[in-house]
# Entry
Amino acid sequence: MSASCEVHGDARPALLGAWAKHIDRIAKQGGPEPADYELLADWFRRAAAAVGERMVTRNDVCTLLAAAEPAIFSGLTMQGLARAQPYGYPGDFELIDRIYKECVSDYPALAKWDLFFHAQPAIRALRHAKSHFCSWLAQAEAGCDAHLPRVRLLHLGGGPGRELLEYFLENPGSRIVCDYMDADARAVSYAARTCAPVGVRVRLQQANPLGFQPAGIPHLIWASGLFDYLDDPNLLCVLRRLWHLLAPGGQLVSSNFSRSNPSQAYLDLLGWRLHHRDRSDLRRLALQVGVPEEAIRVMADPEGVYLFLHLEKRHLT
# Structure
């Protein structure tokens, strides 16, 4: 399903016409099959490149897709919700929770598009982040001072809160008490419902990343999914505050999509724009806020799409 061609002059109609044939074929078979995924992902990359070169507009591409399957960007599909941004910003708490739960439309004509969405490397990486949280928290809690009756976790930019629910259900004897914070009051309400079965463990608060006030000094900080939306100056402000807030002996984990994210073009066309960084970027930013070199580790998901910045504040000597 190659979308490449020589573009001379105003080749927009021919380009869109050629693309329409490919998309129509997929739509007529009821949506993409797994065998179509790589070709379709490549088409999204080429379409995004054409948008970047101003051969076509993002609206041209979305209109072409909607013409082939009118409901493709409705609230009935995952990519429709991602593009619509019903809460006014990309990657909202409800979308993330649907990604965690791998929700698929009940409508056969749309289900294959949802399966394609969930198969994208960036979307798989977000689900891996939830698993990474649970495994990291278990290890970090075990490594905390055994004499601490409670281990305080700051969960910043908390989103749906599903990872907290899963962790506490799987670890009923945990010493963790959590300060959950999100700038969106609707996210806080959503997380309150999600975490209701373990509510006594989670203190929820609406606050922005610079204006929050945790109940106590955190031993552990999780800020995954926050830095993707911040430019370097704002990221430095947040990271500096978190590092200074962290208790001696504590751990801080943040995350960022890698520059090698193969789903970037697809997300861009959906309007889900992110700040991508590489390992050296994350190390440089951590050093700029005063984190010692030996306290920095950068890890990644199995596909290298999502990076995790692990910082450990050593005890004072």
In short: The chain has a mean pLDDT of 92. Residues 12-120 form one domain. The two ends are 62 Å apart (CA to CA). The chain has two domains: 12-120, 123-312.
